[in-house]
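TASK: fixed-backbone design
INPUT:
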């Protein structure tokens, strides 16, 4: 992700370069992609991308579905916005970087899709409420909430400040609560909803230098299972995805020898791609997945199995 963190700033913060990089899981920075890149279907940086038909896909699984994405200005959220729009969804996305949000909006529009950016900080309950109201004003309702916004503020316990604890918990977990809270009544009233929350392999397995991030992401997994029980009888599914190492530009910038060590711990032998996470999100939201709820889909190349 784009946020600076202590582990990167302080080489002595952890056990070595590999460990420090490992502690950054979930912090992989995504490239800023120009409008031409989005129009071409490009999701992140130089990574391999799905083909670009120039118009939205003929496969319209989400035609007229209304999809809200937190953290759609970069990385996984951005790629998911493009993927949803390509399959016919009306997408609204939030994030704090308006220039990037507008770029996604214009880029999707240029391909014949529909997307609207709304500036909102997921830590602020009123912002998220306005984001939901904005979505309803644009498209009449809300079908899907993709809770993706997240940050890292890494550091060992000795260096972890209360501020960095709060920022990560407020964004990664509090933001998910704010979004679900704002969207829930409408989903209940309509008897339909799809919620997908982004957790992390490090919320499952823990990670050196990330008590804040691991706690927040572990919280996402518990939150998902609890809310799924409330939603199940009401036509609302709630699921999580736990990504492993995703190949964004930040990870790509890691020295080759360090990247090789990281990859050596991933059974499939490579990093994941943002669009591989997006595909998981789309699966969980599709009609085919109506019987899937309360689950955590691990997309990590086999790095953590249980
Ligand atoms: P990026 O930094 O590229 O994307 C993070 C997104 O979150 C940005 O769009 C950012 O928007 C948004 N965001 C952060 N803080 C806020 C806030 N307060 N309010 C609104 N939006 C916010 O990172 P990734 O795409 O890599 O990460 C996406 C999710 O995936 C995160 O939850 C991350 O923890 C998780 N993840 C990522 C992994 C990886 O290897 N990349 C691995 C495991 C999990 P803006 O800055 O404009 O506010």
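OUTPUT:
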């Amino acid at each position: 992700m784009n946020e600076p963190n202590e582990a990167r700033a302080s080489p002595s913060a952890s056990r070595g370069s590999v460990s420090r990089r490992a502690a950054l899981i979930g912090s992989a920075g995504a490239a800023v992609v120009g409008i031409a890149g989005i129009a071409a279907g490009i999701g992140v940086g130089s990574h391999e991308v799905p083909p670009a038909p120039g118009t939205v896909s003929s496969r319209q699984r989400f035609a007229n579905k209304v999809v809200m994405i937190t953290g759609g200005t970069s990385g996984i959220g951005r790629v998911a916005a493009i993927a949803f729009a390509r399959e016919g969804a009306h997408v609204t996305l939030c994030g704090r970087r308006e220039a990037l949000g507008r770029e996604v909006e214009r880029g999707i529009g240029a391909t014949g899709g529909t997307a609207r950016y709304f500036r909102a900080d997921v830590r602020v309950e009123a912002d998220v409420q306005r984001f939901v109201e904005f979505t309803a004003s644009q498209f009449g309702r809300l079908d899907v909430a993709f809770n993706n916004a997240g940050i890292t503020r890494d550091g060992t316990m000795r260096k972890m400040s209360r501020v960095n604890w709060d920022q990560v918990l407020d964004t990664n977990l509090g933001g998910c609560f704010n979004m679900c809270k704002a969207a829930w009544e409408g989903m209940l009233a309509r008897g339909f909803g799809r919620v997908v929350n982004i957790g992390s392999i490090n919320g499952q397995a823990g990670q050196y230098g990330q008590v804040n991030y691991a706690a927040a992401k572990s919280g996402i997994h518990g939150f998902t299972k609890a809310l799924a029980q409330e939603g199940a009888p009401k036509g609302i599914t709630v699921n999580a995805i736990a990504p492993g190492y995703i190949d964004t530009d930040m990870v790509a910038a890691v020295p080759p020898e360090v990247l090789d060590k990281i990859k050596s711990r991933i059974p499939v032998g490579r990093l994941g791609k943002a669009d591989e996470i997006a595909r998981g999100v789309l699966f969980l939201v599709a009609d085919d997945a109506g019987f899937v709820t309360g689950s955590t889909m691990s997309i990590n190349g086999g790095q953590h199995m249980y």
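COMMENT: The longest strand covers residues 236-243.
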